Amino acid sequence: MLAKIGQREIAIIVIILTLMAAAGWYFTWYTNSQEKIAKIEGEISRLTTERNRGRAAKRALPQLEATIADYEAQITEFLKALPPREEFASALKDLSDRAKAAGVTVRSITRSPGKSKVEDVRAVNVSLTLESPFPELFVYLKKLEDMKRFSTIEGLTMSLSKSNSQNPLLSTNMTMTFYVYEGKPPPVEEGAEGGIGQ
Questions:
Q1: DSSP-assigned letters across all residues of the chain
Q2: Which domain holds residue 37?
Q3: 61-95: pLDDT as tens digits
Q4: Are residues 66 and 98 in the same domain?
Q5: Which of 63, 124, 172, 179 is the most exposed place for a label (fewest CB within 10 A)?
Q6: What are 20-69's pLDDT values in tens digits?
Q7: Among 81, 115, 142, where does a domain finish?
Q8: Residues 74, 98: one domain?
Protein backbone atom coordinates (compact mmCIF):
# COMPACT_ATOMS: atom_id res chain seq x y z
CA MET A 1 0.00 0.00 0.00
CA LEU A 2 2.86 2.36 0.84
CA ALA A 3 4.29 1.60 -2.61
CA LYS A 4 1.22 3.20 -4.19
CA ILE A 5 1.69 6.43 -2.20
CA GLY A 6 3.82 8.94 -3.97
CA GLN A 7 6.49 11.15 -2.57
CA ARG A 8 4.12 14.09 -2.56
CA GLU A 9 1.59 12.29 -0.38
CA ILE A 10 4.33 11.08 1.97
CA ALA A 11 5.59 14.64 2.31
CA ILE A 12 2.04 15.87 3.11
CA ILE A 13 1.58 13.11 5.71
CA VAL A 14 4.97 13.96 7.30
CA ILE A 15 4.05 17.65 7.39
CA ILE A 16 0.63 16.87 8.95
CA LEU A 17 2.20 14.57 11.55
CA THR A 18 4.84 17.20 12.28
CA LEU A 19 2.17 19.88 12.72
CA MET A 20 0.14 17.59 14.99
CA ALA A 21 3.22 16.79 17.05
CA ALA A 22 4.04 20.51 17.31
CA ALA A 23 0.44 21.31 18.34
CA GLY A 24 0.49 18.52 20.92
CA TRP A 25 3.82 19.77 22.27
CA TYR A 26 2.50 23.37 22.41
CA PHE A 27 -0.72 22.52 24.21
CA THR A 28 0.64 19.87 26.54
CA TRP A 29 4.11 21.02 27.49
CA TYR A 30 4.74 24.61 26.38
CA THR A 31 1.41 26.07 27.61
CA ASN A 32 1.70 24.24 30.93
CA SER A 33 5.28 25.42 31.26
CA GLN A 34 4.25 29.01 30.61
CA GLU A 35 1.51 28.75 33.24
CA LYS A 36 3.99 27.27 35.72
CA ILE A 37 6.50 30.01 34.90
CA ALA A 38 3.81 32.69 35.43
CA LYS A 39 2.87 31.13 38.80
CA ILE A 40 6.52 30.93 39.84
CA GLU A 41 7.09 34.56 38.83
CA GLY A 42 3.99 35.59 40.81
CA GLU A 43 5.24 33.64 43.82
CA ILE A 44 8.68 35.22 43.48
CA SER A 45 7.07 38.67 43.34
CA ARG A 46 4.94 37.92 46.43
CA LEU A 47 7.91 36.53 48.36
CA THR A 48 10.04 39.53 47.34
CA THR A 49 7.35 41.89 48.63
CA GLU A 50 7.09 39.95 51.89
CA ARG A 51 10.88 39.89 52.22
CA ASN A 52 11.02 43.67 51.74
CA ARG A 53 8.29 44.15 54.31
CA GLY A 54 10.11 41.86 56.71
CA ARG A 55 13.34 43.81 56.24
CA ALA A 56 11.50 47.10 56.78
CA ALA A 57 9.84 45.69 59.91
CA LYS A 58 13.21 44.45 61.16
CA ARG A 59 14.70 47.92 60.66
CA ALA A 60 11.73 49.47 62.51
CA LEU A 61 11.81 46.90 65.34
CA PRO A 62 14.15 48.84 67.68
CA GLN A 63 11.97 51.95 67.37
CA LEU A 64 8.83 49.88 67.97
CA GLU A 65 10.39 48.25 71.03
CA ALA A 66 11.39 51.67 72.37
CA THR A 67 7.83 52.95 71.82
CA ILE A 68 6.35 49.94 73.61
CA ALA A 69 8.79 50.38 76.50
CA ASP A 70 7.80 54.06 76.70
CA TYR A 71 4.08 53.18 76.79
CA GLU A 72 4.70 50.55 79.46
CA ALA A 73 6.59 53.11 81.54
CA GLN A 74 3.71 55.58 81.15
CA ILE A 75 1.20 52.93 82.21
CA THR A 76 3.33 52.06 85.25
CA GLU A 77 3.55 55.74 86.23
CA PHE A 78 -0.21 56.10 85.74
CA LEU A 79 -0.92 53.10 87.98
CA LYS A 80 1.53 54.35 90.62
CA ALA A 81 -0.31 57.67 90.74
CA LEU A 82 -3.71 56.07 91.24
CA PRO A 83 -4.79 55.68 94.86
CA PRO A 84 -5.43 52.10 95.95
CA ARG A 85 -9.01 51.16 96.70
CA GLU A 86 -8.19 50.92 100.41
CA GLU A 87 -7.55 54.68 100.51
CA PHE A 88 -10.82 55.69 98.87
CA ALA A 89 -12.45 56.48 102.25
CA SER A 90 -9.72 59.04 102.90
CA ALA A 91 -10.52 60.60 99.50
CA LEU A 92 -14.13 61.14 100.61
CA LYS A 93 -12.90 62.59 103.92
CA ASP A 94 -10.59 64.87 101.96
CA LEU A 95 -13.57 66.16 99.96
CA SER A 96 -15.41 66.97 103.21
CA ASP A 97 -12.36 68.58 104.83
CA ARG A 98 -11.74 70.81 101.82
CA ALA A 99 -15.40 71.83 101.79
CA LYS A 100 -15.28 72.72 105.47
CA ALA A 101 -12.08 74.72 104.96
CA ALA A 102 -13.74 76.67 102.14
CA GLY A 103 -16.91 77.36 104.14
CA VAL A 104 -19.10 74.98 102.14
CA THR A 105 -21.65 72.78 103.90
CA VAL A 106 -21.78 69.18 102.66
CA ARG A 107 -25.37 67.96 102.95
CA SER A 108 -24.73 64.48 101.55
CA ILE A 109 -22.17 62.31 99.80
CA THR A 110 -23.25 59.21 97.91
CA ARG A 111 -21.22 56.86 95.81
CA SER A 112 -21.97 54.22 93.19
CA PRO A 113 -19.85 51.97 90.98
CA GLY A 114 -18.79 53.37 87.63
CA LYS A 115 -17.31 51.84 84.49
CA SER A 116 -13.65 51.71 83.58
CA LYS A 117 -12.10 50.31 80.40
CA VAL A 118 -8.70 49.83 82.04
CA GLU A 119 -7.91 46.51 83.70
CA ASP A 120 -7.44 46.72 87.50
CA VAL A 121 -8.72 50.31 87.53
CA ARG A 122 -12.11 50.90 89.14
CA ALA A 123 -14.27 53.97 88.59
CA VAL A 124 -16.38 55.23 91.49
CA ASN A 125 -19.12 57.79 90.91
CA VAL A 126 -19.51 60.28 93.75
CA SER A 127 -22.43 62.66 94.12
CA LEU A 128 -22.24 65.59 96.52
CA THR A 129 -25.01 67.89 97.69
CA LEU A 130 -23.52 71.20 98.82
CA GLU A 131 -24.80 74.48 100.24
CA SER A 132 -22.91 77.75 100.35
CA PRO A 133 -22.73 81.24 98.88
CA PHE A 134 -21.07 81.44 95.49
CA PRO A 135 -17.64 82.81 96.60
CA GLU A 136 -17.16 79.91 99.02
CA LEU A 137 -18.29 77.41 96.36
CA PHE A 138 -15.81 78.91 93.89
CA VAL A 139 -12.98 78.55 96.45
CA TYR A 140 -14.01 74.92 97.03
CA LEU A 141 -13.95 74.15 93.32
CA LYS A 142 -10.46 75.66 93.08
CA LYS A 143 -9.37 73.45 95.98
CA LEU A 144 -10.69 70.42 94.11
CA GLU A 145 -8.65 71.44 91.08
CA ASP A 146 -5.54 71.47 93.25
CA MET A 147 -6.10 67.89 94.40
CA LYS A 148 -3.44 65.68 92.84
CA ARG A 149 -5.62 62.68 92.22
CA PHE A 150 -7.29 61.02 89.26
CA SER A 151 -10.82 62.37 89.36
CA THR A 152 -13.09 64.25 87.00
CA ILE A 153 -16.06 66.50 87.64
CA GLU A 154 -18.85 65.13 85.48
CA GLY A 155 -21.64 67.54 86.32
CA LEU A 156 -22.45 70.64 88.35
CA THR A 157 -25.93 72.07 88.86
CA MET A 158 -26.74 75.06 91.04
CA SER A 159 -30.01 76.49 92.25
CA LEU A 160 -30.47 79.79 94.02
CA SER A 161 -32.28 80.02 97.35
CA LYS A 162 -35.29 82.34 97.66
CA SER A 163 -33.41 84.62 100.01
CA ASN A 164 -33.17 88.33 99.13
CA SER A 165 -29.65 88.47 100.57
CA GLN A 166 -26.82 90.14 98.66
CA ASN A 167 -24.91 86.83 98.98
CA PRO A 168 -27.62 84.13 98.79
CA LEU A 169 -27.03 80.46 99.43
CA LEU A 170 -26.63 78.15 96.47
CA SER A 171 -27.78 74.54 96.55
CA THR A 172 -25.29 72.62 94.42
CA ASN A 173 -25.32 69.07 93.14
CA MET A 174 -21.93 67.91 91.90
CA THR A 175 -21.08 64.55 90.37
CA MET A 176 -17.50 63.29 90.18
CA THR A 177 -15.74 60.14 89.08
CA PHE A 178 -12.80 58.85 91.07
CA TYR A 179 -10.41 56.23 89.73
CA VAL A 180 -8.80 53.77 92.12
CA TYR A 181 -6.38 50.90 91.56
CA GLU A 182 -7.49 47.39 92.48
CA GLY A 183 -4.66 45.26 91.13
CA LYS A 184 -1.30 44.23 92.55
CA PRO A 185 0.55 47.36 93.69
CA PRO A 186 3.04 48.47 91.03
CA PRO A 187 6.69 48.56 92.14
CA VAL A 188 7.57 51.77 93.97
CA GLU A 189 11.03 53.24 93.53
CA GLU A 190 12.99 54.06 96.64
CA GLY A 191 12.52 57.65 97.72
CA ALA A 192 9.27 58.01 95.73
CA GLU A 193 6.57 59.95 97.50
CA GLY A 194 2.95 59.12 97.22
CA GLY A 195 -0.35 59.51 98.93
CA ILE A 196 -3.92 60.05 98.09
CA GLY A 197 -4.31 63.49 99.58
CA GLN A 198 -1.40 65.21 97.93
A1: -GGGS-HHHHHHHHHHHHHHHHHHHIIIIIHHHHHHHHHHHHHHHHHHHHHHHHHHHHHHHHHHHHHHHHHHHHHHHHHHHSPBGGGHHHHHHHHHHHHHHHT-EEEEEEEEE---SSTTEEEEEEEEEEEEEHHHHHHHHHHHHH--SSEEEEEEEEEE-S---SS-EEEEEEEEEEEEE-SSPPP--TT----TT-
A2: 7-81
A3: 899 899 999 988 887 787 777 777 777 888 888 88
A4: no
A5: 63
A6: 887 777 777 777 777 788 888 888 888 899 989 888 888 888 998 999 99
A7: 81
A8: no
Q: What is the pLDDT of residues 117-176, one digit of tens each?
A: 878 888 889 999 999 998 999 999 888 887 766 778 888 898 887 777 777 888 999 998
Q: Give the domain-ending residue among 17, 50, 81.
A: 81
76 lies in the same domain as 92: no
